[in-house]
Amino acid sequence: MIIECPAKINLSLDVVGKREDGYHLLEMIMQTVSLYDKVKITKDSETRVICNNINVPSDRSNIAVRAVELMKQRYEIQDNFKIEIEKNIPVAAGLAGGSTNGAAVIKAINEMYSLKLSKDEMKEIALKLGADVPFFFEGGTCLAEGIGEKLTKLNDISCYIVLAKPPINVSTKYVYQNLKLDEISIHPDTKRIIDYIKYNDIKMLAASMVNVLENVTIKEYPIIYEIKNIMMEFGALGSLMSGSGPTVFGIFEEKADAIKCYNRLRDYIKEVFVVNTVDRGV
Ligand SMILES: C[C@@](CO)(OP(=O)(O)O)[C@H](O)COP(=O)(O)OP(=O)(O)OC[C@H]1O[C@@H](n2ccc(N)nc2=O)[C@H](O)[C@@H]1O
Ligand SMILES: Nc1ncnc2c1ncn2[C@@H]1O[C@H](COP(=O)(O)OP(=O)(O)O)[C@@H](O)[C@H]1O
User: Fold this and answer.
1) In which pathway does it act (predicted)?
2) 142 and 269 housed in the same domain
């Protein structure tokens, strides 16, 4: 069985509080985009991962393996699996490449064994793998609250997006640890953004996007700011860092403008893509 699993971006990201265990409470607008990994899963004598990207772990720390283990244990499955991942989504980029692979494995095993799990049941299992995983059973445009697990489906928006992943590594843990909540002066107006989405007002949506985690990353990595500026110079309606970064995206109504921006960024960044929003998850 082969599952195509999309990447996500965060059209906005606000931190609205902290849980007792130190995890940050969020309000995010999530969106799936047309950059896909392919996950092929077949029965085998042992569970193993084969991936075309050497930065993806092949041991039990791979989220796809953790998804297999969880499904095996929960549904008393004796078989083992070969998981072949065609990795097209940049790794550790703020695009939730690992999470979408985990969701794909849950979906594949549900189908292979005719488990007939509901979307809500799969979301519940997905949450055990990570806060971003349940979203991939909704896909499209969603509001995510809590640490990402409380999902509300919104109208699906439609536009072109340029993604640019600078060649730097940003640790999610570092970003959250260094976020000084009381020093953040600009938060997204999430309610208003939801209204723009409701009326499909891409211009106002793009102009209103805020990701509070940029307060940490831009200070450390000015290249994020530089990419945002280039995107705006090349006609983006808005540009933002996705998740904890370092990927930056720009929103475009016209494909021709997105391609011009892509061509400019390709001069100095390797991982650049023109994609569009999609209304599906895994
Ligand atoms: C920023 C977001 C936005 O979608 O995505 P990515 O950039 O990873 O795609 C998510 O919040 C990424 O959440 P998640 O995938 O659970 O983060 P992990 O890498 O597991 O978390 C690493 C560490 O960051 C901190 N952390 C994480 C999530 C959260 N809501 N509050 C936190 O304080 C915790 O200290 C945790 O140990
Ligand atoms: N299937 C997978 N694909 C990518 N990364 C994975 C996978 N499984 C585990 N990882 C680990 O998860 C980390 C975060 O990767 P990823 O999910 O791509 O990024 P992000 O959380 O920034 O959106 C990587 O550094 C990698 O070690």
Assistant:
1) Isoprenoid biosynthesis; isopentenyl diphosphate biosynthesis via DXP pathway; isopentenyl diphosphate from 1-deoxy-D-xylulose 5-phosphate: step 3/6
2) no
The predicted structure's pLDDT at residue 267: 87
Of these residues, 14, 37, 123, 132, which one is catalytic?
Answer: 132
- The torsion angle over the Cα atoms of residues 225, 226, 232 and 236, rounded to 10 degrees, is -80
Q: What is the CA radius of gyration of the chain?
A: 18
Question: Is the ipTM value over 0.90, yes or no?
Answer: yes
The verdict on 146 and 178 lying in the same domain is: no
Q: Is 146 annotated as a binding residue?
A: no
pLDDT of res. 81? 98
The β-bridge relationship of strands 160-165 and 271-276 is antiparallel
C-alpha–C-alpha distance, residues 32 and 260, integer Å: 23
For the chain, what is the domain count?
2
Cα gap 255→15, rounded to integer Å? 32
Binding-site residues, ligand 2, Cβ < 6 A: 56-57, 61-64, 85, 91-99, 101, 172, 243
Q: Whose CA is nearest to atom 15 of ligand 2?
A: 92
